[in-house]
Amino acid sequence: MEAGLNTGGNRQLGPYAVTVESESISAGPAPEAPGLVQAPRLEPEQAGLEALQSEIGRLSVLVRSLASHLPSFSYMPELQMAAAQLEASGFPQALVGEVLERVERRLGLRQSQDQAGEVRVRRGIAAELESMLAVSPGPGGAAGGRRVIALVGPPGAGKTTTLAKLAMRYGVSSRAPSVILSTDCYRVAAAEQLRAYAAILGLPFALAETPGSLSRLLVEQRHKEVVFIDTPGCGPNDQDCFEEWSRAFAGHPEVEIHLVLPATARYEDLMRAWRRWSQLQPVKLIFTHTDETTFHGGWMGFAISAGLPISCLSFGQRVPEDLEVASKPLLMRMLFGSTARAANA
C-alpha cells in the first residue's frame, strides 16, 4: 500500500489490494508473494467497465430464464399469482397466457392504473375459463328419440365401467328399452365383464366381433331406444385397429362417439391420445379417475384445446353413483375448490 493513503477499508483479494477512500475505489497490485506470477494491472476505468459488463450479462441471462419459464412475467402481481396457480394445476403455459390476455381485456387492466384485487382477478379468470370450456351433459339425442352411444379411448381409461354407469342411468333408471353391445375382442375377458354388468342391470347383451357384425346388430336392435357400445382400447401403435373402427363408425352417423380419457394424465399425454383417437371423430369427452387427482388443469386445458364439450365425469367404481353429468359450476368448483363460490359471485 502506498504511504499517505488513508483507508476507509482495506481487503486482500488474492494478488490485489482494494483500498476505499471516501467514495472512490482504487485498485493496485499487492506485494508480490514468492512463487506467484503478478497479474497484469488494470486501469480503474477499465476494471469498472468490465465489472459492469459482467453484471449486465448476468442479469440478461436471469431475465431470459425468467421470461422463458413464466409467461406471466410482464403482468401485475395479482395476475402473476393467478398464472402460477393455473400452471400448478396443470394448464399448459400457452393456454395460461391466453387466459391472462383475455382477463386483461375483460377487466380493462391495460387502460387502468388501479391495482386489480385478487378476488376481482379470480372472478375474471373463472369467467374466461367458463366461456372457453364447453359442456354437453350426458348422451345427446332428442327427447323420446333413439340414442346410440359408443365409448372409445385408450386401454385402462375406464370405458367398460363408465358404460355400465351410463346404462344404469339412461337405460334402466329411465326405463327405456336398452341393449349393451361389446366390440372388445382384444382384451382377455373384456366382453365377459360387460356381460356380467348387463346381467346385473337386467339388460340384453350382444358381442360384435367385427365391424360388419356391429352393423348387423345395430339393424337388429333398431327398436331399442338406447344402445350402448363398448369398443376395444386400441394401443398407440395399433393403427389397423383405429382404421378398422373408424370405417365402421363412419357408416353409422347415428352413433354418438364419446372419447373416454383419464383425468390423471398430463396435458401432453392427452394431446398425444387426441391425435390418435380424433380419427374416430368423437363429439364429446368423458373424463374418468377424477377422484384420483387434485390437478384438474391438464384435462380441462385439453378439453379447451380439443374444442370438444365434456359430457360426464367419473370419480369411482360404484355403478351408477360415481358418475356426474358435466356442468360449468361443477368444473369451476373442481378447479378452484372452496373459493369457486366467491369467484363466481
Which helices and strands appear, and what pairs or packs with what?
Blueprint: E1 9-13, E2 16-21, E3 24-29, H1 44-69, H2 77-88, H3 93-107, H4 118-132, E4 147-152, H5 159-172, E5 178-182, H6 190-201, E6 205-207, H7 211-220, E7 226-230, H8 239-250, E8 255-262, H9 267-277, E9 284-288, H10 297-306, E10 310-314, E11 323-325, H11 328-336, H12 340-343
Parallel strand pairs: 4-7, 4-8, 5-6, 5-7, 8-9, 9-10
Antiparallel strand pairs: 1-2, 2-3, 10-11
Helix pairs in contact: 2-3, 3-4, 5-6, 7-8, 9-10
Provide a descriptive summary of the structure in words.
The protein is of the alpha/beta class and 345 residues long. Among the domains are: 74-132, no CATH class; 147-326, Rossmann fold. Helix content is 43%, strand content 17%. The strands form 2 sheets. Strands 6-5-7-4-8-9-10-11 form an 8-stranded mixed beta sheet, with helices on both faces. The longest helix is centred in the first third of the chain and has 26 residues, at 44-69. The radius of gyration is 32 Å and the shape is elongated. Residues 1-39, 61-73 and 338-345 have low confidence and may be disordered.
